[in-house]
Design goal:
about 180 residues; 8 strands; 8 helices; 5-stranded antiparallel β-sheet; alpha/beta; 3-stranded parallel β-sheet; 2 domains; Uridine Diphospho-n-acetylenolpyruvylglucosamine Reductase, domain 3
Length: about 180
């Protein structure tokens, strides 16, 4: 059980989530984005995490993509590790995801949560680093795409309120 109360919000779009984060931050509510919730529960139970508002982003369409086009494999930050493993679009990422926790936990842990989390395990990031992946990050100025190497230094270096939306891996790495 976590020892704090929080408000729950469920925006319908990335821009709405970003604006909501800023509004709640200005109110001093220390908002956190939520997709799987494992970190909130784990760290909250230990008294290492407190927030007064969670912003549920898991059903925003861009977060749920796991698809391949001619040039890119696209993975939404809200795709669960189990889904990555089952779809197996990028075998190296699927293998990394399959080694995280147990199956029950992988049903909740998201790709974005594994990469952005405060818990020090970030197993899914290695395949993205090895393939020079691109990251779509949303913030107050819109969504921008960056090389993972520009943003990842032991953990993803996002500014307060920014949100990892999607990861892009060139299809040549699927094999």
């Amino acid at each position: 059980m976590i020892s704090f109360d929080f408000e729950y919000y469920k925006p319908a779009s990335v821009s709405e989530a970003i604006a909501l984060f800023q509004e709640l931050e200005n109110q001093g509510k220390q908002p956190r984005y939520y997709a799987g919730g494992t970190e909130i529960l784990t760290l909250g139970r230990l008294g290492l995490f407190v927030t007064h508002a969670v912003i549920d982003i898991k059903n925003i369409p861009e977060f749920q993509k796991a698809e391949v086009d001619e040039d890119w494999m696209i993975f939404g930050a809200g795709v669960t590790l189990t889904e990555l493993e089952e779809k197996n679009l990028f075998p190296l990422l699927s293998k990394s995801a399959s080694e995280v926790a147990d199956h029950t936990a992988r049903n909740k842990i998201t790709l974005g949560g594994n990469i952005c989390g405060h818990i020090f395990y970030r197993e899914a990031v290695l395949p993205l680093l090895l393939t020079d992946s691109q990251l779509a990050v949303a913030g107050l100025t819109g969504t921008n795409v960056y090389s993972i190497h520009d943003l990842f230094h032991r953990r993803l270096q996002l500014k307060k309120g920014e949100l990892l939306v999607q990861m892009f891996v060139e299809t040549k790495y699927a094999a």
